[in-house]
Amino acid sequence: MVFKSQLARLRRHVRERQLPRAFVLRELDSAGVTFEAVTLAERNRITTYGYELEYLRAMMDALRADDVLYDVGANIGLVALHAAHRCRTVAFEPDPGFFARLTRNAQLNPKVAVELLFAAITDRSGTVTLYTDGTERNSPSLKQQQGEKHAVEVTAHTLDQLATRGTLPVPTVIKLDIEGAEVLALRGARHLLNGPDAPRLLFLEVHDTYLPAFNSSADEVLGIVRSAGYSTARYEAKRYEQQHLILARNGSA
Prior knowledge:
alpha/beta; Rossmann fold; seven-stranded mixed sheet; three-stranded mixed sheet; 9 helices
């Protein structure tokens, strides 16, 4: 009996590690959201919700049916595909490998509509250099911070440009998780954040350790949003050396 039990556990272990494999996540949506893992790193990112389940839950709870969410730094789509069950969602991802995985995951969820844009969000429009080691390592960055070996040129937009161009809906909620480049995205969104169509909520991940590479700091990031009338609402937490915040514009929570 002991041998049979051990054999069953071994078979289960082997089966669980077989890739590629689809996973249906139900913690945030009982209907389920499907993601495909092709590497062990991706499998871990999916099954752990990126180790940010509570933050993801707070974000989903804050969304309304009439919202338009810009998911900046969408990665494989954990936020975007869950949010698309709740509101209109536009996902931005500049890394070629992650964008391919995001596209695949969107295809696995045909009942929800999410708009995918292969682009970086920064403080200027044009072309920028993205540093990446692919989908099996750390997230890409607009500054070489973790020994990334590859540099690729990618299209870049500012949020101010996108908000006025007319080809996309103006966002009512913006999520930023871009490895220190959040300061660049916010610098490129000053008119939007201070204008009459300012988003009601910001889902902001502040990377204290990466910001110095951008000649910036958490104080500058928080100063930009606070000067635009945003204050912490609903959620504030810290994981490792990252701050997770949900900020509401005064009177719009």
